[in-house]
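Teaching assistant here, posting this on the class forum so everyone can see the example we discussed in section. The complex has four components, and the goal was to see what a joint structure prediction looks like when all of them are supplied at once.
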Amino acid sequence: MNDDLPLALPPGRDRRLARGEALFRAGDPALGLVLVREGALELVRLSSEGRRLILHRAKAGDTFAEASLFESHHHCDAICAAPGFVTIYGVADLRRAAMADLDLAWRVAAHLAARLVAERARAERLALPHAADRLLDMLHALPPEPDGTRRIGCSWKSLAAELGLSHEATYRALARLERAGLLRREGRDRVRLPVVPPS
Amino acid sequence: MNDDLPLALPPGRDRRLARGEALFRAGDPALGLVLVREGALELVRLSSEGRRLILHRAKAGDTFAEASLFESHHHCDAICAAPGFVTIYGVADLRRAAMADLDLAWRVAAHLAARLVAERARAERLALPHAADRLLDMLHALPPEPDGTRRIGCSWKSLAAELGLSHEATYRALARLERAGLLRREGRDRVRLPVVPPS
DNA sequence: GGGCAGCTATGACCGGGATCATATGAATGA
DNA sequence: TCATTCATATGATCCCGGTCATAGCTGCCC
């Protein structure tokens, strides 16, 4: 998702995170740009009725909370989904660095644009009326590994929350798709999708 | 949405648009940053089954297709929803200007961050399971006018497409909400929402 | 003016997603 | 090790959103 961006950043603060620990909560003053070095983070919003929606998931190598660079406060919770550590780049530091490095701000912008495109794809997916469609769309978007399988990288329950579905609907859709031969689960968090003939 | 951004931009190309005309189509080479000067534009994606999802709507004063600054091709259609004209700032021009103006790239990034936040709010809305909830959430997000009403600025049918709902479900939700006293329509595209006591 | 397209609106029907309940297996921590 | 929590899984039921049909209305263009 971001290859060159972190390389040119000024030194940041490291912070270790345990599973379930919050890096920040809604209402906290904005941290700045967060780079996940190890483990995984989830950006979570809890609705008033207790529904849990996952707005973004970042694994090692991804940046996180990019938009908070330009906000005074966070408006979501950041929860550690897999233990690891992150590096935090404060706003002021980054701003200063951007003034020295003509290209840095442009790369930050490019990075935000990529996130925006991803978010639009997500919105498009959430507008699909059927659980199976949302699921397949999301799975097809995952990068296939050399052996042809795709790793979801989290529990199916979390994936359900990311798709705006109840986990029951997700398991049912999985079972139906598997019966229909449109999907095969291999191990805990891997799926194989049939090769579609190029249109 | 963007106050200072256009002011510091280099001169761009103007283009007039008629209702229904496409500024660009999916697959076209990226135009660059588009500023809507008059009228309204919609970023539309047509699904394979013919469903029409509105990904973004921009009215006079808003920017449009910001992410295309960093993409080689468009992947949505841009359709004129209300006749008017736009100014187009090419990528190369903007990039050059960013090299001269240390702050411009940073402002572009800030702008993209704001769009990202808005898009996340949209995704959150699309994850709401009930039509009435999505509708109310969207309407509450509209800025109220001095008289307390809110202008939706488009047809209810378009709003339905933006909410990922069929227009029938939208009309039904509207009627139900109106019966329940949670909403009152005033004229063609205005609603009044009851004042909620601060929690 | 007349005709046509598109928006607004509502009814009937069906399928599927939310919810609640329950059960088993897996993982995690004391 | 054992217990507790959590993920996985499936069944029953209800509700509601999608779809199709129909109709009045608005606005627009010739």
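For the discussion questions: The mean pLDDT of chain B is 88. The two ends of chain B are 28 Å apart (CA to CA). Think about how each of these relates to the inputs above.
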